[in-house]
Structures are given as C-alpha cells and as structure tokens.
Amino acid sequence: MTNNWMKRRWVLGLAVFAMTAASYAQWSNPADDVPAYHPSAPLKVSALPPILSGAQLTGEHFRYPWQVHAYQLAAKVSSVIYQLPCNCRCDRALGHTSLRSCYETAHSTECDTCAKEGFFAYQQTKLGKTPAQIRAAIARHEYESIDLEKQ
Description:
Elements: H1 2-26, H2 65-76, H3 78-81, H4 90-93, H5 99-102, H6 107-110, H7 112-126, H8 131-139
C-alpha cells in the first residue's frame, strides 16, 4: 500500500511540474517574442499572392508618393521580405506570415512600421546584406531611422 501511495505522489509531482513548465512557457517574457517570418526563401515566388502593383497602386490608400514607392521596391525584394518579420505585429492581428504579407494588401500604406521595414529591406539588400542580417537589424529597430517623406 505504501508503494502505491509513493507512485501516486510521484505521478502527481510530475503532473504539477509539467503544468508549471507549460504555464511558464505560456507567460514568458513577451519581449522575446519574434513576429512571424519564414526562415528561408519561398520555393516558388510565383506561387505566392502577388504584391500590389500597377493600377492597384492608386486610389485612396496611395495618396503619397512614398506609399507607391514602397510597394514598387517591395516587389523587387519579394523573396527577401518573405523572410522578414513585421514589428507592427500584424501576424497576430491580421494573420500575416511575414513582412511580405503586408504588401499583398494595402496594409503597408496605413502602417509606417511596415513601410519603413520595406524600404529598409530594399536598402540593406542593395548593400549586400542577407535576410538573416536584415532580420537582426529589424530586431534592433534600425528601420526606425527611415524617413518616409524622403523616400
């Protein structure tokens, strides 16, 4: 009977430990939480939803030149922005899977974080930076220095 009680106590202890560990992971520091992105380039860029372009870059969402320019540059680095997170957290609010998702809709016209990250990604790509290096710079908020009115 004592052996049975010891087994139950051991199982109960394991259950408490597992629940504690699970709750700790669930409530870990939100600052360590990285927005959604893809760790590598897409297998086929053509299989992805298109980035808005052409006549889609007109109308009420495209009132400023920087808005049109952001989409034009995003299209040039489509596979790079596919591999980058978006710090506006549209992954939570809109289900976006990377920065590229922001340019598949008019979202980047309304969100300066997405627009600045797009310009930053283009600039850094032209400087020879890899998507991983650009991701690290985005995590350090280096994109915040972009002035949209000067783009």
